[in-house]
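Our working data are protein records whose layout never changes between entries. Getting from the letters to the tokens is the skill we practise here. To make this concrete, we reproduce a full record directly below:
***
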Amino acid sequence: MARPRTTARTVDHPDLTQVTLQQVLEALVDPVRRTVVSQLVRKGEDMSCGTFETPVSTSTLTHHFNVLREAGVIRQYYVGTTKMNTLRADEMEERFPGLLAAVIAASAMEPGAGAA
């Protein structure tokens, strides 16, 4: 019997014109989520979910990725079975000028910022 045909995995992302400042700020208030964003900035390239260094479990990290994605901060996509993450920096800069850069800079100055 032939295997059923499957469709490519896709992930839904919000249109940033529909994202509010409140949503973005609530997403970035959590230190784990700021760590994810900071690691994407430092790496300068897309990262798979399993490559982030955080102090939380995989299931908890999945929750944090979902919050960031729903707030329009990151974009997620699949490469085979691997879920990749990219920062929507240009789109965020257009929608909320200077916000992401200011949060990343301020976060880098916090005690222990280099730990994760």
Summary: The CA atoms of residues 7 and 80 lie 12 Å apart. Strands lie at 47-48, 74-79, 82-87. DSSP finds five helices and three strands in the chain.
